[in-house]
Amino acid sequence: MYLNCHSFHSLRYGTIPLHELVKQAGSYNVTAMALTDINTVTGIYDFIKECNASQIKPLIGIDFRNNCRQLYVGLAKNSDGIGEMNRLLTKHNFENSQLPDCAPRFQNVFVIYPLDNVPDELQENEFIGITADQLPKLYSPAWKSRMDKMVVLQSVTYRTKCEFNLHKILRAIDLNIIGSKLTKADYCKISDVMIPLEDLTAKFDSYPIIIKNTIKIISECNFQYDFNIKRNKKHYKANKQEDIELLTTLAYKGMIRRYGNSNEEALKRVEKELKVIDELEFSGYFLITWDIVQHSISQGFMHIGRGSGANSIIAYCLDITDICPLELDLYFERFLNLNRKTPPDFDIDWSWRERDTILDYIFKKYGRDHVAFCGTNVEFKYRSIFREVGKVFGLPKEELDQLAKKPIEQHHKNEVVRMVQKFGKMLEKYPNQRSMHSCGIIISEDPITNFTALEMPPKGFPIVQFDMHTAEDIGFDKFDILSQRGIGHIDDAVKLIKKNQNIDVNIRDTSISKDEIKCNEFLRKGNTIGCFYIESPAMRGLLRRLNCDNYKVLVAASSIIRPGVAQSGMMKEYIFRHNHPDRFEYFHDVFKEQLGETYGIMVYQEDVIKIALHYGGLPAADGDILRRAMSGKGRSKEALQKVKDNFFSSCAQKGHSLPLSQEIYRQIESFAGYSFCKAHSASYAVESYQSLYLKTYFPIEFMTAVINNFGGFYRTEVYIHEARMSGAKIHNPCVNKSDEQTNVFGRNIYLGLQHLKSLESKTAAFIISERNENGPYQSLEDFINRITIGIEGIQILIFIGAFRFTGKTKNQLLILARLILINFKPENRNLMLLSEPVKEYELPVLDRSPFEDAFDEIELLDFPVSVTPFNLLQTTFRGDVMAKDLTQHHKKTVRMLAYLISRKHVPTKRGDMYFGTWIDAEGQFFDTAHFADSLSKYPFLGGGCYLLLGQVEVDYHFPTVTISKMAKMPFIPDPRYAATDEKRFHTQQQIREDVSMTHRDPYPQEHEYNMPRHKMSP
């Protein structure tokens, strides 16, 4: 009888979580019900599963509405019916248009109109929905005559009075109004609840025809879904046989190219993988991925194949990845095996500039009816909940900010705030809006609208209405098409090297950028600023602690830096064992046999599986549950508890002691959700090495590429500093030399016009296009004659020195610009007058402090270019100890002067602490630790230079200064202002710092994680 039920997937309308909706129906003896969320099919597949488990017949449909106004409810008779409704909804989503008041002529859909929107004529499949409250209207002859087309339309939107209020809050949030402004048309009827089935039927006892019609619809709606059928595109070629033949040909051809003709190990591995791929009918997926990659290569794009796919030698031979699984002992079963029910996906990265081009190719090649992005449900989050709910209650912005920013225990205790907290807590985990998955796309065999309606976000690529987990449940294997700035660094650097030095670097040839002597020396010293994944202070410190000078150690470092590994104490233990291989014992023989490469420490996801299998004796299915739980996929407390129980039971059967088994499981648990698979770490390490190779041998071009791609760990200023340390000469933007982005000529780097934060981007683009079309600017007069620009824009360019090629000083140029523009407004400039020879003026020579340029640069760029920050200090003191000598001062107190680069905030039980990264006057980096007691007296006071006092701690070759005192050092007064002007000290406050936040606890000390270094009783 319930043909119009809403779950919380009716965004900002429904209040009932899906499983609770079905649970309530079961408790009310409901034997059939329809999920008809508003303009979406997001929850239909989970609904089917929940209903089947509760022995309730699921009906699937859509409640079609324009805004809040109900037009009609559609119920699918079969799978064709859901496709018809999806296509209607998709059309209007794409057109951003209103749905029609009357439904189109559906062939496989029952349509139910509410009483206030009934057309004059009804098709055979169309009915009139009536609620119990509306039954008195049937005394009207007009309605009584149409009773043979009526059905029960009891809507369900909420469960309790409290949820009804929550529903009204959601409506107010959706309409962006305070609750008191809601009208009855904005929210559901108070009768839109579920009641016991017998009570509902009793209300219609006098109208058996209505009940009969309702039962007829229920009996004829038979939408069924087989969750065991694969729905993604089945074949790349015409059929399965042609697919495996092509894959086999490509695999052997690639194997010869990668390994030569006589590598027996590679041959056996290829044969083994091809057999599994064929049995699992996964050839098409491999070939589609190969096709995408081949198109990328043909366009000259660079890609990185990573993730568990790098365990496959076939992927390596097809150029999907650049990771040799034989070299790193990666086993294919981690990616694909016959026991695995859900095949994984490839993760492939492109430059952020080229990703959309790749996506466009995929959509065109495989058809826009068959390709879409996975969706994702964006839930109400802590900050947004209190802000949104508080707004409904009419709280002012100041109070909303306090509610959003402060922990709940620090909120005011008044009645309104208590109401905000009450309803805010109810909204936790509720979906707020649908969005696009960052990278996952699906390519289907049948049109995607057979399964879901599509939405069109501003990005321009359609998205399905369900998330990646549902996609997997209903038979889709997604393709992860990602983007990252690191590839942009590498790709742009290679192009700049060709342009600047006419050298071709085949960076895809990993043999030139892996275990190269000079690169390894950079790696060992942590000289990795700008390099993908290995440039952060924490990573550079780890590299130095490990004396990391080869690829395999870097692979391990890429994994142990992850929060789960580090938090478990395994990072520290790995560092100890790596530096002291003679000072520990493997505490069980299995660890020596399986984890000898990592000193008996579980570093990778594969290591956890190895121990679970080889020590615990768990079956493969349990190992897969454990692995998927660690990676955040399909996490289930019940499944994990079962695996845990099986683990200890199996260990006992194998004769292992309980303390040993408990210690091993403790280590396994600590990995949950964070550790990398080894192939993933290896992929990262390859890309890191590629970056490092370019930084080592072509540092100026590489740092220019990093500057242009933004998105690194540090701000632009740091990369400019690194370029200067590499021998580059840095030039401010110039109208004749600079483009929008930074460019390089020999060893000269000209900053791009985009770094001038006050210059409009369209003005910068016009300056460049005009210069490219008509040649360099000859003078300031020539520039003004050719570029439509106001005095403000001219002043920005003059102050940054963009006209220095004229030989005139900034002061002279400012006077000249005003003389030229004195009678003109930019929008009404008569350019013909400027074509006349400009009168030569005798310009005064004005004295100018050499530091004025530096303050101009800080104002326009946020950092000085012509001098270093140290040159602007009032003091000439540069510290007693320099960064390069810190390792010689272990346990000694040092006094240093340094420029703040970044700091990381780490909350602890004893108060906040920070880790700082600095450069000294010689330009060398070093790191500091600041604990709560020191910070209370000597806090950070923003960007700039500080005098530091602290004790040096050298931890495995890496020095850190634990700060006891520090003071920010003043710059000289800004010489551009008079001695009495307060603005003399304002500009220096623009000096920036990078501040990041972590919510992790500090890494445990050795006595806290207590990792055994001796053999334990078996």
TrEMBL record:
InterPro entries: DNA_pol3_alpha_NTPase_dom, DNA_pol3_finger, DnaE2/DnaE/PolC, DNAPol_HHH, PHP_dom, Pol/His_phosphatase_N, Pol/histidinol_Pase-like. SUPFAM superfamilies: PHP domain-like. Its EC number is 2.7.7.7. It catalyses: DNA(n) + a 2'-deoxyribonucleoside 5'-triphosphate = DNA(n+1) + diphosphate. Residues 993-1011 have a biased composition (Basic and acidic residues). Residues 993-1018 are annotated as: Disordered. This is DNA-directed DNA polymerase. GO terms for biological process: DNA replication.
